[in-house]
Amino acid sequence: MAPTFLSPSLSYLSLWASGVILAIVFLKLFHLLLRRHKLAKAMDNFPGPPTHWLFGHALEIQKTGSLDKMVSWAHQFPYAFPLWVGPFLGFLNIYEPDYAKAVYSRGDPKAPDVYSFLLQWTARENKSFDIFCDVGHMALDSLMKCTFGKGDSGLSYSDSSYYQTVADLTLLVQQRIDSFQYHNDFIYWLTPHGCRFLRACQAAHDHTDHVIRNRKAVLQDKKEQEKIQHRRHLDFLDILLGARDESGIKLSDADLRAEVDTFMFEGHDTTTSGISWFLYCMALYPEHQQRCREEAREILGDQDSFKWDDLGKMTYLTMCIKECFRLYPPVPQVYRQLSKPIWSPRLSSTGSLISLHIYALHRNSAVWPDPEVFDPLRFSPENASGRHPFAFIPFSAGPRNCIGQQFAMNEMKVVTALCLLRFEFSLDHSQLPIKLPQLVLRSKNGIHLHLKSLRPESGK
Hints:
Elements: H1 8-42, H2 58-61, H3 66-76, E1 80-85, E2 89-94, H4 97-104, H5 112-115, E3 129-130, H6 131-148, H7 161-178, H8 185-190, H9 192-219, H10 222-229, H11 236-242, H12 253-284, H13 286-300, H14 315-327, E4 333-337, E5 353-357, H15 358-362, H16 381-384, H17 405-422, E6 423-427, E7 435-438, E8 440-443, E9 448-453
Parallel strand pairs: 2-5
Antiparallel strand pairs: 1-2, 3-9, 4-5, 6-9, 7-8
Helix pairs in contact: 6-12, 7-9, 9-12, 12-13, 12-14, 12-17, 13-14, 13-17
């Protein structure tokens, strides 16, 4: 068979396309190198741990025990140090109250290099069991009841698809943050992790769309509309569906879903982490568990349930919750991008990425004496009065702090008090939790506890 050759015009077109692709790759590489130079220059004043030329510190932070490694580095490098995830993404990792105040008291935007990864999805017998999943179902049910007027999440133990979807998404986003090769969208969407992330996003969106569709269907009924209008308080979804801009235009379906997705994730996953680690602390420190239980019994008295005014009386329980938040913050790390220079000459210039490592800040021995000791009295009025306002920030701080922190604290008080009244918690020493940051603080192997019922079978 005679050989065939490309026509001159086709050959020229192929060369031209190759040249364009090479030019784009070159420009992208040049942009990344320029970005690295700018980030490195902004952090010149801060020494830090040795870094690999390609991986940066990624290999270290992907290991089990990375949070404690951060604390070790924080002891070695006071105030802050550069943290590189791959060759092109670098943060100034801070964990000192004055630095935290300088950055987080302002209104700088969330760091897009990190948070953009979220945009696709804005006991029986003597056996222990993993409480994290059960607490997660409870937190989701509570959120659905309080903010969407729905008595349950629509999930059962045999079909916990939404809860598992959220767990998958937090895992995948954290993996993407820690793996520089996944920072590029084009590359990431071609990988198995990227495909899994898109599937999880779709599953989360389907669940949210189902909630919104159901509420819209209810609002088509005039009787239901009248009931909603005469409620003392509208729930979150009612407010969103009734919201209009200055031109009288309602929120689009995409806008509705984005708001609901954000509320559902941030409203239950952080609470799940907080309650789970608190119950672990109670099992680890039975003397504090018993004192919290006695306080709850005294407050409840002959009542069937706690009342609003009772929450302010739970002083020792509140101190224990705060001490648990100090040692096990639900969100161990948050990020910002500076929109203007910081007043301190040592801190970074406009455009720099700042990572506030809350876990390291809360275990900073220069701020907290004996930081590894569980001591609820740190949060007694006399001990907390002179403390730096940015020394304890489990809900972040400044203009972009958590808007649901009061709801979360009140939910934790009620849930944990009821749990302590009904059960005695103890450790399963064969399965101690291994801390794992996945946007929220989880455990690599779950949080396994023994539960002993404190109520007779025929009791109230």
